[in-house]
Write a structure and sequence with these properties.
By secondary structure, the chain is an alpha/beta fold. The chain is built from 20 helices and 24 strands. It has three domains: about 400 residues, Aldolase class I (TIM Barrel), CATH 3.20.20.70; about 50 residues, no CATH class; about 80 residues, OB fold (Dihydrolipoamide Acetyltransferase, E2P) (Beta Barrel), CATH 2.40.50.
Length: about 600
């Protein structure tokens, strides 16, 4: 019997970057590796969508459309360039209205995309119907997705072969047009027995002509086993990466898959020597980039979370930025409870981020004391129907804390009725900022909001993590002041009036102390004229300054808005007061207990 050829998509230049570098990679740095991979005979690449679209704006200070155009120019007209879309979220921070979803498909086709992989983390088929239709109408190929994961030990109710076959039948009954089907396990936690049974039954249901792809990650050390099971059960293709962004939190290497298929009835059609040469070029291209150690490792903790490879390093890097990496294991373990009580949505973007944010809040503030906005809206139904009903008590907490009622309406119906999700709203944001209202600009703002406006106004900053930036720098001193750079963050330090002042925050010290202790903030005393420091409850980025010096604020009104772990946190006035001073600037990275403002 002739051997069966297994196709593969090279994920190195999208998922590989997301999984290993948090998607913070400049186009110019990897294009030689892309050229080498194409010269090695690879004709199917994932290159955009997902978090990459936003990361170009947030961290790379690059035009995401120009980046896609540049990649298409390098690979030529015949290569299959694929992107990732999240159903009604497409590539945005939040779920979108119909006109934004349609514009996404049209613009991605315009900028060189061949295929769009389209998934919904809740496996709510209603979230795939309109987005899939738009993809096909725009002229792209539609790869529809069923999202998979292994439930943490001890949990049952979804995510077995019967569940996935039920979703497939719903897709078929809905009439969504699609060219291929992908099973996507972002955390790499689905047991291979479930993989085999799911793909086998899918092949039986769809027939021999259907094209089935399988995607997973090595994060939990089971991806190769999953791929072999999927291949044996009848899939046509798997997703593979290239060193230095293969293995660990990413996909298996092309070389690893080639090796594991030797002596079997299956093969991948590659010139192995040319692949090795391409990887040497790629490793040289990425030599200056900082690689988080957890991105190249597998973890036995992952099945207990389950944390996707594409989100793991993004979250650990945010923890590093906020000096909270020591809480990582606590957050991973706390995800189990977030998954169990959240309705079993698949741990893939954006739901994986909701799970991690809620786990983070449960660790930092106490269980369910602070509901993460995304997680709360998910359990309340604003992103669609979860596979199983979420915990009623958590739903109650979410409704109370977010001031929202549970809903049971299609997401598009909710969003199309919201004027702040319409194209006209985003056009007005551009007009108010005196920026052109091109289709590209409108969609960029719809997906990136205020950060999109800042990018278009030339106010964005590059934030790429290089090896050199992650090493502590020698202090630069001037008189009694110095600047110390640690983990890429600058700290302005000076001694003043028997205090050590770090980035504007005063600390008492005694000569010989092993560590300085924060100066105590005055206690609140409404109405007696005393001053009170408004402190940051956790590290974060100053996203917006709401109040101004000299203004009056009422108890509970926001003064400053921080961003931490992709969440906005309003820092509110504890009492009616006058704002004496604002002690931070927009864009500042602040530590826990940093003085944000002084109130009187």
């Amino acid at each position: 019997m002739a051997k069966k050829k297994i196709d593969f998509m090279c994920t190195a230049f999208r998922d590989g970057f997301q999984s290993c570098y948090g998607a913070r990679v400049l186009n110019k740095d990897f294009l030689p590796a892309l050229d080498a991979a194409k010269d090695a005979g690879i004709t199917w690449f994932e290159h955009g969508g997902g978090a990459v679209f936003q990361s170009k704006v947030f961290y790379c200070n690059e035009d995401p459309y120009a980046a896609m155009d540049e990649i298409r120019a390098h690979v030529g007209p015949d290569v299959n360039l694929q992107t990732l879309a999240r159903g009604v979220n497409v590539v945005a921070l939040d779920s979108c209205s119909s006109d934004v979803i349609r514009l996404h498909a049209q613009l991605f086709k315009k900028h060189g995309v061949t295929t769009i992989r389209n998934f919904d983390a809740l496996n709510d088929v209603n979230n795939l119907i309109f987005s899939g239709k738009c993809i096909v109408e725009a002229g792209c190929k539609h790869q529809i997705v069923i999202s998979m994961m292994g439930l943490p030990p001890g949990l049952t109710g979804a995510h077995d072969a019967a569940f996935y076959l039920k979703i497939l039948r719903q897709i078929l009954d809905s009439g969504i047009p699609f060219d291929s089907l992908c099973f996507k396990d972002a955390s790499g936690t689905t047991p291979q027995s479930i993989v085999y049974e799911t793909v086998k039954q899918t092949r039986k249901l769809l027939g021999n002509d259907a094209y089935i792809d399988f995607h997973s990650h090595e994060t939990a050390d089971g991806c190769i086993a999953q791929y072999l099971a999927a291949i044996e059960a009848g899939c046509n293709a798997v997703d593979l990466s290239l060193a230095p962004v293969s293995g660990g939190t990413s996909q298996p290497d092309v070389l690893s898959m080639w090796q594991n298929l030797r002596g079997t009835d299956y093969y991948i059609d590659v010139d192995i020597d040319k692949i090795r040469e391409a990887e040497m070029v790629f490793q040289e291209c990425m030599d200056t980039y900082f690689t988080p150690p957890e991105s190249v490792m597998v973890s036995p903790l992952i099945p207990f979370s389950p944390m996707p490879g594409g989100a793991l390093t993004a979250n650990t890097q945010m923890l590093r930025d906020n000096k909270l990496m020591d809480r990582y294991n606590d957050c991973i373990l706390a995800m189990t409870d977030a998954v169990a009580k959240g309705g079993f949505g698949t741990s893939v973007t954006p739901v994986s981020q909701f799970y991690f944010q809620q786990a983070f809040n449960n660790v930092m503030f106490g269980p369910w004391k602070k509901i993460a906005p995304g997680y709360g809206k998910m359990v309340l139904g604003y992103f669609g129907k979860t596979p199983c009903p979420p915990d009623p008590e958590v739903v109650k907490y979410a409704a109370e804390q977010l001031g929202l009622e549970p809903v049971d309406k299609p997401v598009l119906e909710i969003n199309d009725a919201d004027p702040k999700k319409s194209l006209d709203y985003f056009k007005k944001m551009l007009t108010d900022a005196e920026l052109p209202t091109t289709d590209e600009n409108v969609f960029l703002v719809a997906s990136c909001l205020e950060k999109g406006i800042a990018f278009l106004k030339g106010e964005a900053k590059e934030n790429i993590r290089r090896k050199a930036d992650m090493a502590p720098a020698a202090p630069a001193a001037t008189g009694n002041a110095m600047t110390i750079t640690l983990d890429g963050q600058a700290y302005n330090v000076k001694v003043e009036n028997d205090q050590v002042v770090v980035n504007g925050t005063s600390y008492a010290y005694t000569v010989g102390d092993a560590a300085a202790a924060p100066a105590a903030a005055p206690a609140a005393a409404a109405g007696d004229g005393s001053q009170e420091n408004l402190l940051a409850p956790l590290p974060g980025l100053v996203l917006r300054i709401v109040a101004q010096p000299g203004s009056q604020v009422k108890e509970g009104e926001p003064v400053v808005v921080l961003e931490a772990m992709k969440m906005e946190l309003e820092i509110k006035a504890p009492r009616d007061a006058r704002v004496v001073s604002i002690n931070v600037h927009q864009g500042d990275q602040v530590s826990t207990d940093a003085v944000l403002a002084v109130l009187q």
